[in-house]
Amino acid sequence: MLKKELRQKYKALRNQLSENELEEKSLAVANKILILPIWEKIYFHIFLPITEQKEVNTEFILHLLSGKDKEIIVSKANFATLKLTHFLLTDNTKIKKNVHNIPEPIDGIEVPSIKIDVVFVPLLAFDKKGHRVGYGKGFYDKFLSECKPDVIKIGLSFFEPEELITDVFEGDIKLDYCVTPDSIHTF
Known about the structure:
Layout: H1 3-15, H2 19-33, E1 43-45, H3 59-67, E2 71-78, E3 83-88, E4 95-97, E5 103-105, E6 118-122, E7 125-126, E8 132-133, H4 139-146, E9 152-156, E10 177-179, E11 184-186
Parallel strand pairs: 1-2, 1-6, 6-9, 9-10
Antiparallel strand pairs: 2-3, 4-5, 7-8, 10-11
Catalytic activity: (6S)-5-formyl-5,6,7,8-tetrahydrofolate + ATP = (6R)-5,10-methenyltetrahydrofolate + ADP + phosphate
Protein name: 5-formyltetrahydrofolate cyclo-ligase
Organism: Flavobacterium urumqiense
């Protein structure tokens, strides 16, 4: 399927989820993450969910990371340059929704992409080869290309993979894992 078709399909599927299903599935995803071989790493980048888009609620994962004393990094999007700036999440970090309803840090201690060990990647859909479909702006492909070569890329999805995304580009960066409420897919 084409990315455009997949965006429509998975936005519609997400919109059908009740608040209760959203929370249950998000918790199931967080519980699956516990068995991934990532816990010796230190710097974890996580997205803060756009609740209006019914994204995986990463609050459960934030609690896991915090409980394991990991350094947690969140981003701020610049829609003019389509780049992300990364900040350490601390008790003093102020979060505010931008015009696209993305919760972001207002400011803080900046962290270079190259320092990040693990990235939890938002997505709408993914395929059995580890390719993902996001919202189409390319923020994460740019960001992941700036990370160290061995950064661990983990997609989070409520749904199982499509067979194949047919319009994958050279600049699209594949996932290492994708975690769903029912499975861990390794690529």
